[in-house]
Amino acid sequence: MFDIGKPIWIEGTVVRFDAVNPHVLFTLERELGDGQVERWTVEGSGLRAFTLMGGDRLQPGEVVEVCRFDLKEEVRLETPAGTRAAGLGRGFTGTFS
Fold it and tell me: Residue 80: which pLDDT band, with cuts at 50, 70 and 90?
């Protein structure tokens, strides 16, 4: 299902964090080389697992890095204009400090 041989790392600033069931959601922004801002909505693990990893301390303004994996087959997702979607699920790796 996921192409774990090609990890994609995303570093960005947290602009929103929602501790909701069944999975936490947070939004990251990162500046691209040309000055444009790219926004990612990230679906993390379940709230309990996310808390055990220290993710419940996420606050807007913090810089975090997450790893995601593309699906082996292309799937179209509808997202709000200017937003990209990254489902982390089992492929979740992150750094929280």
Answer: low
User: What are the residues whose beta carbons fall under 8 Å from the beta carbon of 9, sequence distance 6 or more?
Assistant: 65, 66, 67
Q: What would the two tokens of residue 22 be?
A: 């069944």
- pLDDT confidence of residue 83: 54
Strand partners for 30 = 38
What does pTM read for this prediction?
A: 0.66
Q: How many CB atoms lie within 10 A of CB 71?
A: 10
